[in-house]
TrEMBL record:
The gene is cheD. GO terms for molecular function: protein-glutamine glutaminase activity; transferase activity. Residues 183-379 form the HDOD domain. Probably deamidates glutamine residues to glutamate on methyl-accepting chemotaxis receptors (MCPs), playing an important role in chemotaxis. CDD domains: CheD, HDc. This is Probable chemoreceptor glutamine deamidase CheD. Belongs to the CheD family. It catalyses: L-glutaminyl-[protein] + H2O = L-glutamyl-[protein] + NH4(+). Its EC number is 3.5.1.44.
Length: 453
């Protein structure tokens, strides 16, 4: 029987009491994955950790986020479900320094410190480690098969035989341009709202009037609010109800996010390892960019949010082309140290930043958004003093490292130098990550929008 796959999100763990046709899987970059299996009881689980220990000192409701609290909580849950410490065996993976790094970036080696802490704790609890592949510079996946108890650590990208003979013809510039016209565009009303939101003098009444005129946008917005807010009866039935319940800021964010959701969902293959992956990534980046803007004061919050949401729109265009070159793409990512822009350029002749900026021009996005889309991987190549691209870059970096390994950043320069532009040092950055709401890394990052703080 074919096993289903359950992705264990960052900061969470899952324990299963019985053998079953299910594979627990974690996508690991800087995060560390720990699987534990008791072969006598025939049960096990998987833990997906972000950080070595709490740095803010604040009590946290997510023990799985840290090695210091996650490992004990995970082992306790296993024992409660029937595992015995004498029979447990662990496998550890992840903790990589993703992307080319400078000496300064080594100071941010969160993954290395998390892996060290995990090993220290497993030793303290007398749990033997049967396999461990941590550190290095590549993302990987860790899998535990709950039927057989077998573990598998697989470097990202080796989804097919690397030596497989592969014939591929690069698409022409015309073919790529034509695919833009084949996409369902972002609705006009959403574009209008997007321009209003980022003009920094957004008139909410005018925005709400635009939304009320458009039944599709209204329905999409209400669907997103209801899915995140309620599972039961008390549904939000109108934009006016949503305004009372959510307030202006959150409602505006929900309107543009729900419009973009439909756009991102048109492509769900290579760039997105699981269904909806591109949108989750965009949404998470938007929320983190908004919070980075609030934390650093380096950009207008609504603009940072919108730029985060839009930064990878070029991938939606390129996805259909990269799909036919999938093995080449993954192999290139591995060989070329995850320099995604170089790999795209070599295989397709363009990269997703260029294509995204072209889409932005076509749809008359404000200039600062186009700039952020174009330079989100290499903000230092953009206009000096424009910090929006740096905000999006840092948010993208956090999401790619802690959500999964499928959106690796390309770094020629030093990450520490880029954070310094935003006035952030390594410890401030780590503190910022520590304070982020965990749901931002989940499969429904939008729930963060609707939580009152
Ligand atoms: Fe990107
Ligand atoms: Fe991204």
């Amino acid at each position: 029987m074919e096993s289903n796959i359950h992705y264990v999100a960052s900061g969470q763990f899952m324990v299963a009491a019985d053998r079953q046709p299910l594979i627990l899987k974690a996508l690991l970059g800087t995060c560390v994955g720990v699987s534990v299996y008791d072969s006598v009881a025939g049960m096990g689980g998987l833990l997906h950790i972000l950080l070595p220990e709490p740095v803010s000192g604040a009590s946290d409701t997510h023990p799985g986020k840290y090695a210091s609290t996650g490992v004990p909580a995970f082992l306790k849950a296993l024992i409660e479900k029937g595992a015995h410490p004498d029979n447990m065996r662990a496998t550890v993976a992840g903790g990589a320094l993703v992307g080319p790094v400078s000496e300064q970036d080594m100071a941010l080696d969160i993954g290395g410190r998390t892996a060290e802490k995990v090993h220290e704790l497993l030793k303290r609890y007398n749990i033997p480690v049967s396999a461990s592949e941590t550190g290095g510079f590549f993302t990987c996946t860790l899998e535990l098969d709950l039927n057989t108890g077998k573990n598998r650590i697989c470097p990202s990208g080796l989804l097919r035989d690397p030596e497989e003979a592969f014939h591929y013809t690069a698409p022409s510039a015309d073919a790529i341009a034509a695919s833009v016209t084949g996409l369902k565009p972002i609705p006009q009303v959403a574009l209008k709202i997007l321009r209003m939101v980022t003009s920094e003098e957004a008139d909410f009444k005018a925005i709400a009037a635009e939304v009320r005129k458009d039944q599709v946008i209204t329905a999409q917005t209400l669907r997103m609010c209801n899915a995140a807010l309620y599972s039961g009866r008390n549904q939000v039935a109108s934009i006016d109800d949503a305004l009372i319940l959510l307030g202006q800021d959150t409602l505006i964010k929900s309107i543009i996010s729900s419009a973009l959701k439909t756009f991102y969902r048109q492509s769900d293959s290579v760039y997105s390892l699981c269904k909806g992956g591109l949108f989750h990534h965009a949404m998470g980046t938007a929320i983190v960019a908004d919070q980075l803007a609030a934390h650093t004061g380096a950009a207008h919050r609504a603009t940072a949010y919108t730029a985060g949401l839009l930064h990878d729109i070029g991938m939606v265009v390129l996805d259909q082309h990269i799909t036919s070159a999938c093995p080449l793409f993954y192999r290139g990512m591995k060989k070329e140290n995850h320099r995604i822009l170089e790999v795209e350029k070599r295989i397709l002749g363009v990269d997703h930043c260029e294509v995204g900026a072209k889409l932005g021009l076509k749809w008359a996005f404000p200039e600062n958004l186009i700039h952020a889309i174009r330079h989100h991987h290499r903000p230092e190549d953009g206009k000096a003093g424009d910090k929006l691209a740096y905000i999006v870059h840092a948010a993208d970096l956090i999401m790619s490292r802690f959500q999964s390994g499928v959106f690796p950043e390309s770094s020629r320069g030093s990450i520490a130098d880029r954070l310094a532009v935003l006035g952030m040092g390594p410890s401030d950055f780590e503190n910022f990550i520590d304070r982020l709401p965990m749901d931002v890394f989940s499969m429904q990052p939008e729930t963060v929008l609707f939580k009152k703080t």
